[in-house]
Amino acid sequence: MFLVTYTAYCTNCHAPLLLLRISVSIVTFTGPMYAIMSNRAVQVNPQNEVVLSADDQGATAFMLVKCRAWNFVSEVLRSRCFSLVAANTDAWYVRHRRFFLHVEPKPDSDLHLYDLDSSFIVHRDTFYDFNPGYYSLESVNFPNYYVQSLDDGRLGITQRADTAAYSRTASFENSAYSTSGN
């Protein structure tokens, strides 16, 4: 767990006006991540695309880490903003590029776009509040666009639709997780 403290100062009086403390627990997903509709594991293919596996095997473990776009997200959303790192890499982040998810290292240029593309708002039970335990990931730089498993097996971000089919393909569960620092 880490604690972030923000203090706003009055420019004329040099006294603190607001002190806001946010504690964030880092969650590491150590087991497979499954798409609800197909019960297929999420994995990274040889082209570094984030895809559904051919069956329920072969999942890639991801770690939720501090949001790369932390400074660009409103204070209200910061406690739910995270980035995902493929656990078997040296800081290769999941990001959307041309609306499809990829795992990529930090680039030498255009870091601002990379930070935004690799940051997501984690929502719990967004589409299935009657059956808790499912997660959805909303894009930081495309609000109301959620990670969805697509018909071709790739994962991408698409605009939210209020349909049962969208709810099934934009909801994920984790078979195991651990929290650090609690």
Q: Write the CATH fold name.
A: Trefoil (Acidic Fibroblast Growth Factor, subunit A)
Question: How much helicity do the residues have?
Answer: under 10%
Poorly predicted runs: 1-32, 177-182
User: What is the terminal separation in angstroms?
Assistant: 6 Å
Instruction: Please report the number of helical segments.
Output: 3
Order of helices and strands: EEEEEEEHEEEHEEEEHEE
**Spatial order of the strands in the main sheet?**
7-8-11-12
> What structural category do the secondary elements indicate?
mainly beta
Radius of gyration: 17 Å
Tell me what you see in this structure.
By secondary structure, the chain is mainly beta. The chain has a single domain (30-180), classed as Trefoil (Acidic Fibroblast Growth Factor, subunit A) (Trefoil). Helix content is 9%, strand content 42%. The chain is built from three helices and 16 strands. The strands form seven sheets. A four-stranded antiparallel beta sheet has the order 7-8-11-12, with no helix packed on it. A two-stranded antiparallel ribbon has the order 1-2. A hairpin with a 5-residue loop joins β5 and β6 (50-52). The radius of gyration is 17 Å and the shape is globular. The relative contact order is 0.20. The model is unreliable at 1-32 and 177-182 (pLDDT under 50).
